[in-house]
Amino acid sequence: MRLSSGKPTGTESPPEPRWEFQVFVVGRAAPHSQRAVLNLQRILDRHLRGGYDLKVIDLREQPELAAQEQLIVIPAVVRKHPPPSVRLTGDFSDEARVIGAFGLEATPTASPSAEGKRLG
Amino acid sequence: MAPATVEATKPGGIGKARTGIAGFDEITGGGLPRGRATAIYGNVGSGKSVFAMECLVHAAREGDEPGVFLSFAESEKEIIENGESLGFDLSALEASGKLVIDSARMDPGEIAGTGGYTLDGLLVRLEHAIDRIGAKRVVIDAINVLAEAIPHPAILRAELRRLLDGLKARGITTLVTLEVAEQSEFPVAEYLADCVIHLRFSLEKGVATRRLRVIKYRGSSHRMNEYAFLIASRGITVTPVTGVSLDYPSPDERVSMGIPGLDDMLAGGVYRGDTVLIVGGAGTGKTSFAVSMADATCARGDRCLYFALEEAHSQIVRNMRSMGFDLARYMETDLLRIRSARPGSEGLEPYLAYMIEEIEAFDPHVVVIDPITPFLAMGLPEDVRGTLTRLLGFLKARGVTAVNTMLSSEREALDENTYIISLVDDIIILRNVELAGERNRATSVLKARGIAHSKQVREFRLTSHGVDLLEVFTGAEGGAVGASRAGLEAGTQSEETRRRAEAQDRRAALEATRRALDARIEQLRAEFAIKELETQGLLRESEALAARARTGRESVREARASPSSGDDHDAEGS
Predict the structure, then answer these.
(1) Which portions of chain B are predicted below pLDDT 50?
(2) Which chain A residue shows the shortest CA-CA distance from B129?
(3) Tell me, what's the ipTM?
(4) Integer Cα distance of B99 and B65 in angstroms
(5) What topology does CATH give the domain A18-101?
(6) What is the pLDDT of residues B221-274, one digit of tens each?
(7) Which long-range contacts (CB under 8 A, 24 or more apart) does B180-185 make?
(8) Inter-chain residue contact B116 with A91, CB threshold 8 Å
(9) What is the DSSP letter of B244?
(10) β-pairing, B137-141 with A19-25?
(11) Do residues A106 and A115 touch, judged by C-beta distance below 8 A?
(12) Across the interface, which of B110, B125, B146 has its CB nearest the CB of A89?
């Protein structure tokens, strides 16, 4: 499910690699799930002006993904693109941590810097 | 001394899920609380994962209860390898849909936020695995690793409770393991789990020891003692020192010791399943007795496992051939197995594990431990005692007749190792008897439980056809051995005869002394004679010289005294 498909700022910008995130929740309507998704969207909107994909996956619907994606703590967000895969869990209320983990800070609209490899 | 067996399931009480771990189900009166959570904590190497794994494997294999093993500490590959070292083919169990192995990784820094998270990922993951194979049991191994990655204790506590409640609601028997030395390091376990088990690994005097204690068991009675346990290559064996090991059948059947005279003394041999101790000093024939038993066992088609702790099996086979025992024949037909190995520096426990493994693999009727003495010097006395108790209890519980030899004087055995005396059923004493300048061997039965045994001391010989007990001789001074016995048997068997024989011996000795003395006198005389001759010779010589000198002087004097000294002829002629 694609919550947001980004907001291209202009046709003049060169094609950039898309940022892709997957958020895993148990029960979309659960307060934890909703708060986490909102927090995440707020941060990504601010730092990824070039746009991103955010897919929310409910483990109740695809329980086999829990083992495949090495999930224990929920909600969890996984940066699927660009590589490497980075995972962060919690409610994402700590903006600095989200920025640091995904390498959003240095070049808000460009591809992630090397520091984004943190927490591999 | 045996407390009553704990009831398996009280009316209205909780159900038990058998673990299949030897000894544990007896301690807990049937196993773990069924459909509930059990926490196992212990230090590194205490065997938590092995315990948990074994519970799952037994249930999956024998109880038709599939299980899920999720570890926070090891990879799937490592888990499978651990299983292999215990003889469990986890891959096969997985393939047949009886087991799911999952390895969970937690990065300590991955939680970003002040809260607002749950362990639902873990719950979904477990539930999915449970649903896939219809699991009845779940192990969460090294849950402390998960706990360390969760920065909020309140969330951790609440979430673990929710997780375990979720599993309980599905009727799952859950086991969580915690790598903490003390329960206080992870107090959550105590109120979350219905049953708490503490495992402890320690090195005492260089001896590896593992102990198990059931700390808590909600809704059930259980034994509070700490029990030593083993991890052998076939899994865990817990043998409680008291209680369980005494619940064994006591067959009436007798088995031969392989020495006709000894069987007679025991009124037909020892009971099958008895623990026999053969005590004697060096060179008293302990091994010969033990081998006699082994030989007789194989001769009647039973299996015998012989642990030779101080001799190579080839040495035993060779030495015993000279006594007419053809052990090689039985080894070829696999009725006899001789295992020559000294307990290593790693201590008693691994050796015991090795023995138990061999016993389980061969399933012998008779086990010989020759000698048991090296065990006594290994480790702390109470550990040695515990270990021996478990070993002998293990053999007894299997109905195995055990023959142990012990290098010790009778007095030593009785005074210093009294607990061994109480552990064994029958004690046969061997000793050297020195009498009338001869060394002979004698045996007696010190104790034989439930047997009206002979109280006699019997001489025996190690002959080319085995151990030969001589007919008992009962005279005024009791048994006689060796030459005195031969004298008695030939003569009138009276005290007078014995005295006469003794006097004769003394006369012979006196005679020999006299002869020796005579010889010396003779020699001295000869020496004297030589000296005498020499002296006489010298005397004669000096006398001759003196005589000549005297003659000379006299003629001078005479010549001077005579006036007509110039003419000899005149003087002589006058």
Answers:
(1) 1-12, 241-246, 475-476, 491-492, 565-574
(2) A64
(3) 0.76
(4) 9
(5) Glutaredoxin (3.40.30)
(6) 777 777 777 776 667 777 654 434 445 566 778 899 999 999 989 988 999 989
(7) B180/B41, B180/B42, B180/B43, B180/B144, B181/B42, B181/B43, B183/B41, B183/B215
(8) yes
(9) G
(10) unpaired
(11) yes
(12) B110
Compute the distance between CA of residue B316 and CA of residue B327 in angstroms, rounded to an integer: 9
Q: Which residues of A touch B110 (CB under 8 A)?
A: 73, 76, 87-89, 119
For residue A56, the Cα-to-chain-centroid distance in whole angstroms is 9
Is the predicted pLDDT of residue A117 greater than 50, yes or no? no
pLDDT value at position B298?
94
**Residue B121 and residue A35: Cβ atoms within 8 Å?**
no
Report pLDDT for A99. 81
What is the C-alpha separation between B41 and B177, in angstroms, rounded?
A: 6
Compute the C-alpha angle A14/A18/A23, nearest 5°: 160
Q: Which of residues 303-332 of B touch A (CB under 8 A)?
A: none
Q: Under a CB-based contact definition with an 8 Å cutoff, are residues B406 and B420 in contact?
A: yes
Stated pTM of the model: 0.58
Confidence of residue A2 (pLDDT cuts 50, 70, 90): very low
User: Any CB–CB contact under 8 A between B146 and chain A?
Assistant: yes
Q: How many A/B residue pairs have CB atoms within 8 Å?
A: 100
Cβ distance of B117 and A90 shorter than 8 Å: yes
Q: Cβ of A74 and B102 within 8 Å?
A: no
d(CA A35, CA A37): 6
Question: What confidence tens digit (pLDDT) does each residue in B493-511 have?
Answer: 556 666 777 777 778 778 8
Nearest CA in chain A to B150: A73
Q: Could you tell me which residue, B298 or A107, shows the higher pLDDT?
A: B298
| Cα-trace Rg, chain B | 42
Residues of chain A with Cβ-Cβ distance to B125 below 8 Å are 63, 66-67, 71-72
Q: Would you call B379 helix, strand, or coil by DSSP?
A: coil
How far CA B14 is from CA of B29, B37, B165, B312, B462, in Å, comes to: 11, 12, 16, 53, 62
Q: What does the DSSP 8-state code read for residue B463? A: E
Residues 6+ apart with CB under 8 A from B285: B430, B441, B460, B462, B467
Interaxial angle between packed helices B120-133 and B153-169, expressed in degrees from 0 to 180 and rounded to the nearest 10: 20
